[in-house]
Every structure is written in C-alpha cells, then in structure tokens.
Amino acid sequence: MTRGISFAISLFLVLPALAQAEGKRFAILVGIKKYDHSALPPLEFTENDVSELADLLKPAGYEIILLTDSQGAKDRAFDPTRANIDKNIRAVLNRCKSDDMVIVAFAGHGLQFEGKSETYFCPKDARPFADQKSTLVDLEALYKQMGESGAGVKFLLVDACRDDPHSGRGRGVTATSTDRVPPKGLSVFFSCKEGERAFEHSRLKHGVFFHHVLEGLRGKAADADGEITIDTLVSNVRKQVPRQVPDLFKGAKQTPTLRSGEVSGTPAVLARVTAVKPNATVRIDPETEENAIKWVQQHYGRITRDPDQKDEPIVAIRLSCSQLRQADLKNLSAFPNLERLELSGLHLSGFNGQFLATLPALKTLKLTYVQITEAGVRDLSKAPLIKDIQIEDFKTPADAETIASLASLRALTSLSVGIASENRFPKIQAVAKLTQLSHLYLKSTYDFSDKELALLSQMEKLESLEVHVSDKNPGLSVAGLRQLKSLKNLKYLNLGIGIEKPAPAELVRAVSEFDHLEKMNLRVATAGAFIRARAETGWKAVQDTARLLGESLSDPAYEPRRKEYEAQLREAAKYDVIADIEAVKKSMTKCKLTVQYER
C-alpha cells in the first residue's frame, strides 16, 4: 500500500494582520517613474519599490494609498501629483489617533537648492526651480505636519537622491540635507548620507535601499519573536546596503541614515512574520537526515510530523526564501531519495546545479525567479532522470541558447517556460526543436503569431499543449489555430483567446474541429467582461477614496464619475458573446470542453 506524504516543511514567510486592538495602520506610498518636466530624468525602479511595499504591508493590516504612474493611469485620483500627495497625506494624518501608525514612503527625485536649507521631494508635476517651490513637497513642512498628527508612530522613508537633476545647482535629499530633528514620534529613514548617491540596479529591479527594506519586511529583519520593528528594520538595512553597493558599483558607497524624534514606550511593531504550510509536503527519515532537518527548521520554518508515516524518505521539497544562497544547496545532498525540488524567489543570479549530482532520483525541477543559463542546463545532466523542467521568471527569462541546450536532457518529456516578448521567435524555434516533449506549457506577455504556431505544430509527440498569454487581447487567428490540428497525438489543449477580431465564438468553432482531442480548456477574455471589470474596478477606487476622505458619494462632485462608469457598463452589454460561445460548446460531442470567461 502506498503511503501518503508525511511531513510538511513550513517555508513561506507571510505578514499576517496585526490585532485590531493595536490601532489602525496607514501607508501612503509614492513612487514616480516618469516626470512631466524634462529637467527631471525618468527613474527605472521607483514604482517597483513602492508597489511591492504595498503588497507586503496590505496583508499586515495596513490601509494602503498607492500613488504611482500606473495607478494614475487607471484613476487620476492616484496620480503622484503635488495636489494628490498633499490631499492624501493630509486626509490620513487628520484622522489618526494615538494608537495608530502611519508610514509614508517616497521614491523619486529630491532637491535642495544651493545656499538654502530647505529640502524637497519632487512630485510628478514638479517644476524644479527655485521660483517654483510651490510645485514641490517641502519635507520640513511634512515633518511639522506629521509631528502634529495624533498618530502615535510615524515612519517616513525617503529615497530621493538617485540622480542629481541639476548638476552643480542642486542635489538629492540626504540624511544631512536638513539639520532639523524630527518631531516627537517621527522616525525618518534616508537612503543615503550627505555626499552619497542612492543606487538602483537592474538585477534587483529595485533601488538597493528599498530592496533591503522589502527583504527586511519579508523576514530578514524579524527578531526572535518574529516581530519587525522600526529598529530591527533600520538595523538590517543599514547593515546590508553598505555591503552590497560596493559589489554592484565598484568603489561606490551608500549609507542609509536614520533621524528620529523622541520615541517613548516599547518599539512599534511594523509587522510580524510567521511560517505557514506550503502546498508541497515531504517524506522524511529522521535518523539519516537529522542534520538537514535541523537546517530546514533553523532557516525556513517548522516541520510537523505525521506519526503514521514517520519512516518514509523525503521525495519532495519546496524552498521559497530570499535568504537562501548557492552554498546552502549542498545541504540537499542529505535527501538522496528526492524526486521533486522547487526553488522559488532565491538570490541565485545564475543557477549552479553542481549539487544535483547528489540527487540521483530527481525527476522534477521547478525554478521560479531563479535565473538559469546554458551552463546551468549542463549541470542538470548530473541528474539523469530529470523529465520535467519548469522555469518561471520574466525578470530574467531563459534565452534561445539556454532553451536549445535542454535537448541534452534525454529523459526530458515535459517543459514549462516563460517566453519574453523581446527577440521571441528564436526562442520558439528552440522550443520546437525539443521534439522529445510530450507536454509543453508556454507563457508569454503577447499573442503567438501564425508563424510561431506553425513551428509548434511540428512537435509530433506532443500530447498536451498549454499556451498562456497574460495580455487580455491575445488575438489568435483561426488559421493559426488550425495549424495545430496536425498534432495527431494531442489529447489536451489549453488556450487563451482574446477579445478582438475574429470573434471569440469563431475561434472556439475553429478549435472544435480538433476531433482527436479528449479534453480542451479555453480561457476567453470577452470585451464585455473586460470593459465591465474596468468600470467596476474604477468605481470601487472612487468609493474607497471617498470613504478614506470621509466624503459622501451623494456629493455632486462625484456625479460625473458615477455617470462615466455607468456608461461603461452599458457599453459592456453590447459585446457579450458568451451566448454564442456556449452554443458552439453544446455542439461538441467528441471532446470535453471547459470554458473560462476571464476579465
């Protein structure tokens, strides 16, 4: 009798909501990627910084106001302009009570004019000139405003010195740009000190400062009780940034600096980190793998025991932790029976699979946000039984040469891979040459052309094909789809179908001609659903803003917005093709068809 899986390794770090009794928590996060004025050059990763910060703080119970270019494109109320920044900060600070906490984060350009002590953050619509100060965010005034707020804890993060917008005239905002001590209860954390520049790097997809702020909130700054306070977060960031910057930028220095007003009482807890069970579980022999178990427990969480299955060896492990390094992977040699390994979100700039030689039973390897290279594929041959490779990383996607090198894995029959849009055709060509595959899952941000689908139609051994396009308008053609009919061994097809011409129903009808299929799943993004979702999301954003500002939706000022979204809903009804698709679905008798209508 085959036993079930017996142990679960708790590896995933989460930020659970804090108790309601601890007061409310607010976060106003501002990231500006592109400025209106040409004197302020664009910044690449500022929006990433605050968007991911929002993703981390929201599960911890914070009410989030995110002001970025992307949010502004959806709703102008969240455009990072001077007026919107001031309005939202003022609204939040005015409603705070003594047990509340406020975080304000700025990522963008900063200014201090020569001969002046005042320091400024540049909003999107800033005019960076001495006679246009009213278009800037005065940090001295913000200090005073936050100091007067009733909130018990106020934390301001300022990363506003990545580039000098006026070389020789001004400079970014640094810790010693202002000599003023913050008011009581306010802590201000600057990304660097005077005379330094704050760096961002393409490998991190963040500014170095915010990268380590995020890492700290993910768990690296947690104390023994799993609590992340301002003190522990600042300590971790001040330790990590000066270490990493010289490695990324030769000879460079960056020293994050904290300025604090008087703080009383116990340290404020920004978030708490706990471990939760992942989907993957493991089997374990506690005698032969005792040290490895301790390693997992020490670094990645708890192991829970099923007494009835304690003698089973480990066959699957899933590790997801940003603190893991290449050198740590040697610990996996303690699990010689491992058949499935998932590595996710690790600091591995290039996959080094030397440790795989100690895992002779490994059959499935999944890499998420782990960059794999051609050299890394050669390492995969050290595990000769590998038959399933899953590579999911659009930040550092596999290139054509890396994909082509997978042909050296003789046992490989299943491949899941993300294909970036840039220079995509050679990558599809490389995939099509992996003729040994029986299962293929392709993920891309844009539609697949007829020419690319023609390449895939040559993979004669394919039994299962899944094509996922994250764009809501894949625009697959009828002719392109019909080329896949030549795959006579194909039993399962999973496709995304877009909202433009030809009509979705026509595309479904074309796929219904695949008489050799046993099962088919179609993800259909209808125009009606798309427009409806846009209207509902937009109106909800308006409602949330009104609630936050304490305003009534019955106010005449909101009437134009209400009419705008109601008009969009009426438009959505004109494009409802679901009935046509369902009619085609009923006509199919040989194949089990499921249809998902996506927004």
Structure description:
By secondary structure, the chain is an alpha/beta fold. Among the domains are: 17-272, Rossmann fold; 278-391, Ribonuclease Inhibitor (Leucine-rich repeat, LRR (right-handed beta-alpha superhelix)), CATH 3.80.10.10; 531-573. Helix 14 runs antiparallel to helix 15 (559-573). It starts with 6 loop residues before the first strand and ends with a strand. The longest helix has 23 residues, at 527-549. Helix 13 (504-511) links the parallel strand 26 and strand 27 (519-525). It is built from 16 helices and 28 strands.
Summed up:
With 599 residues, the chain is α/β, with parallel strands linked by helices. The protein has 16 helices and 28 strands.
Overall geometric form: globular
Quote the beta fraction: 15-25%
* Average pLDDT metric: 75
Name the CATH class of the domain at 17-272: Alpha Beta
- Radius of gyration from the CA trace? 27 Å
- The low-confidence runs, each spanning 5 or more residues with pLDDT under 50, are 1-21, 162-172, 275-289, 297-310
Strand order of the largest sheet: 19-20-21-22-23-24-25-26-27-28
CATH architecture of the domain at 17-272: 3-Layer(aba) Sandwich
Major sheet: 10 strands, parallel
Distance between the termini: 45 Å
Protein structure class: alpha/beta
- The total beta strand count reads 28
Helix content: 25-40%
Tally the helices. 16
Q: What is the CATH topology descriptor of the domain at 17-272?
A: Rossmann fold
